[in-house]
Amino acid sequence: METLDPRTIMLMTTLMCGAMTIVMFSVYRSFRREVDGLGHWAAGLLLLVCASLLFGTHGMLPDVVSLLGANASLLLGIGLSMLGTEKFYGQKPSLRFYALACCLGTAGLAWWLLVRVDFSVRVAIFSLTVFLFYARQAQLVWSHGERHFSSLFFGGLMLLQAVVVVTRGVSALLQGGVSLVDMLAAGTRASLYLAAANFMALLLTVAFMTVATRRLQTILERRSTHDPLTQVLNRRGFGDAYAREKAKLRRYRRPLTLLSIDLDYFKLINDRHGHAVGDQVLSHVAFVISGALRESDCVARFGGEEFVVLMPDMAPHHALSAAERIRTLLCAPNGQGLPPCTVSIGVACQASEHEELEQLLSRADTALYQAKEKGRDRIEFDIVGLTGACAPSASMVS
């Protein structure tokens, strides 16, 4: 049966790795702030291309250049992918381990290539080194990866690759047959092994791109629903949250209350202290409001210094207590050197299941304007159209 020449397989691998390198670098340049580790993977792929080119010069250039250079490039490239995976999962890169493994691995390969020539030992040294890199990445996915198909696919491939390379290393030591483990040798078995090894290298890159794309999708989805400065919901995200809670309102007939919160004299803070400090104040306010709420409550920034809070299954008198807690916390010293600030709050309760968000917001804003007109730093409740259990007593209103 005719088999592919190893050099042909190397050429095909070089072309495919080169294409993937371009793709990875393009993604890195576009999303390096959003997804860590892309640069390391891109550089690792580039080193794999260099290794493939060097392997292709075997027999034309000295072994110290073709074989030792190619294997050293492979070690460096696979190690860089490990560092990239560590960064991707928010772990400190193992730079010392990477440097030590690459130096010792390359030194061992050089010794058994140039001083005491033994192909089997070289295979074992190389296999053990890259096994450590692959096993580390599999462990990272197991410990820090989300339970999603993309992570399971990536981690499974890493584990499979780790098993394959360590099996190859053990086979080289135990059997000592060059033909069984020499990927550059002619023959069907060697060609199949070489093709599978190169295919796995490309498949691992695709798998990492899959988990990176999943991460990027999550980030972009969050950006579409969250305010980038304060990290609370934006109008779109708040609208989605309101739609979900309104559906529950129709089903369970539970009260739904909304707070409209506006910082008092925020323009003076920007004028006196600058917009950078103003942004810090807004972030602090969002943090305080979020900390004063239940997990089921939703807080959003509607632009400028205006915040809105949705409180499902919250009776009006409890909502007023929560609003007073927010007002009091924001009046207290913040301990961060930020200028003090107060807020005015308007409170409105969903009148019926037929009322839309814009109507509820309008009534809460009306109550907010009343708080502003009455001196600011206070809470007002909108009681238009509310009777019975939905209407608070006058003593509850600040």
From TrEMBL:
The chain crosses the membrane at residues 6-28, 40-58, 64-83, 95-113, 119-137, 149-170, 190-213. It catalyses: 2 GTP = 3',3'-c-di-GMP + 2 diphosphate. Its EC number is 2.7.7.65. The keyword Chloroplast does not apply. Keywords: Membrane, Transmembrane, Transmembrane helix. Residues 254-384 form the GGDEF domain. One of its GO terms (molecular function) is diguanylate cyclase activity. CDD domains: GGDEF (cd01949). It comes from the Bacteria. This is diguanylate cyclase. It comes from Janthinobacterium psychrotolerans. The lineage of its organism: Bacteria, Pseudomonadati, Pseudomonadota, Betaproteobacteria, Burkholderiales.
